[in-house]
Amino acid sequence: MIKRIIYISLGAVFMTLAITSCKTPSVVEKTPDTAVPEHFDSASDTANTARVKWQDFFTDPYLSALIDTALNNNQELNIILQEIAVSKNEIQAKKGEYLPSVDIRAGAGLDKVGRYTSRGASEATTDIEPGREMPEPLPDFMVGAFASWEADIWGKLHNAKRAAVARYLSSVEGKNFMVTNLIAEIANAYYELLALDNQLAIVKRNIKIQHDALEIVKLQKSAAKATELAVKKFEAEVFHTKSLQYDIQQKITETENKINFLVGRFPQPVIRDSEAFIDLVPKQVQAGLPAQLLDNRPDIRQAEMELAAAKLDVKVAKARFYPSLGISAGIGFQAFNPSYLIKTPESLLYSLAGDLAAPLINRKEIKATYKSANSKQIQAVYNYEKTILNAYVEVANQLAKIKNLEKSYGLKAKEVEALTTSINISGDLFKSARADYMEVLMTQRDALESKFDLVETKMQQMNAFVNMYQALGGGWN
């Protein structure tokens, strides 16, 4: 009997499918282009710095401690971890949709019908047993188990579950991408803080040099070898340089607080060692092959998982055009007296039913949903291709930046050396009246700016070193 019902239902399904399948709208399919150049430059070494763990890549113990704290306390990262938990629960929810639903029910009631009705008249003439009339009012007691199940003939529910799995994996990759960015942001802010410390030290040394020069000019004015104008110019330069230190101190405070925010704590001093900053030499970064970006970059893998989920969404939307088969069943005991519940087969109840539902009136809504799912799939393809292209461009830019900054730093170091020497020369010439005060002032200002530029270039070198690691996809593993 059960097999017969199922066969009849399946036959009706396939008959309905033959009618509806020919009306399923066609959509445009697009395959992502994942081809990348064979190499970034002339090098074709497969060694890749992205495989290096961040603990080995960043050797400064103070920076490592900050990163470690951030990976535990950063609020944004913890928010993403909760989003991952939500995505994981979605998998269980989707999995539960294609499994049978079983409920246990128990109930009790009381029923009184009118005597002068067909049911009332019938019950009045019916005896339960010889000599025992039907009770009035009629109690009703029931206990049983009931199940319902939608047969996933077209894979709609399974594909929805697979899409949830893909989105869960995408959220994991999103977390990895967040970790990569967080590590890079902390490292860049840390090197910026070291650069500001060095610039502040330069300003303080320059203030002393300018103050000494001011005292010399005052002595020369007393000896009638200089004018009041020269004294005021030197005083103004000292005041200007002193004001710079407060601008730098404000930037130091803001950078410290930026780091404190990233590591999830209230403002406090950031422990660091700034003395060796100018002598830092970035490690050699190995870019590997462009094709390795597809495995190393979390954002690329995230886009790939989103594309996989979008493709499954199209299958789910397409399955809505086809009929759905539902099966329900129940078994239990029912009687008007609790003592009769255990008397079988008289108190036994059971049911088995199948229902077939096919879309008829709302096909336009289903078509629109199907087309929207396909458009989102194509959108996901373009996003996947864009992410791959962006990753390649980022690596190419950082490779060029590292090389150019290396050359620039060498030239700026020579500039600082020349201008530092020129400060002493201009001072000696000024003492012997062979140079005017403006030449001394301009030389001091140029030397200060060149030292600032040198520190700035060193910071850019370290940032390029960090950004290259980030662009390659390092830090999350």
Describe this protein's structure:
There is one protein chain. With 477 residues, the protein is of the alpha+beta class. The protein has a domain at 28-97 and 184-297 and 372-471: Outer membrane efflux proteins (OEP) (Up-down Bundle), CATH 1.20.1600. 62% of the residues lie in helices and 11% in strands. The chain has eleven helices and six strands. It has helices at residues 2-20, 54-57, 61-73, 75-97, 118-124, 156-222, 228-262, 293-296, 298-319, 363-431, 437-471; strands at residues 101-111, 127-129, 132-133, 138-151, 324-335, 348-357. The strands form two sheets. Strands 1-4-5-6 form a four-stranded antiparallel beta sheet, with helices on one face. It has a two-stranded antiparallel sheet with strand order 2-3. A hairpin with a 2-residue loop joins strand 2 and strand 3 (132-133). Helix 6 packs antiparallel against helix 11 (437-471). The chain is elongated and about 140 Å long. The two termini are 58 Å apart. The relative contact order is 0.16.
On the 0 to 100 scale, the average pLDDT is: 87
| Distinct helical segment count | 11
CATH architecture of the domain at 28-97 and 184-297 and 372-471: Up-down Bundle
Q: What's the gyration radius in Å? A: 39 Å
Poorly predicted sequence stretches spanning 5 or more consecutive residues: none
Strand content: 5-15%
Strand arrangement within the widest β-sheet reads 1-4-5-6
Helix content: 55-70%
Tertiary shape? elongated
Order of helices and strands: HHHHEHEEEHHHHEEHH
Give me the CATH fold name of the domain at 28-97 and 184-297 and 372-471: Outer membrane efflux proteins (OEP)
CATH class of the domain at 28-97 and 184-297 and 372-471: Mainly Alpha
The biggest beta sheet, please?
Answer: 4 strands, antiparallel
CATH superfamily of the domain at 28-97 and 184-297 and 372-471: Outer membrane efflux proteins (OEP)
Distance between the termini: 58 Å
Number of strands: 6
Structural class: alpha+beta
Membrane topology: Lipid-anchor
Main location: membrane
Keywords: Lipoprotein, Membrane, Palmitate, Signal, Transmembrane, Transmembrane beta strand
Organism: Echinicola vietnamensis (strain DSM 17526 / LMG 23754 / KMM 6221)
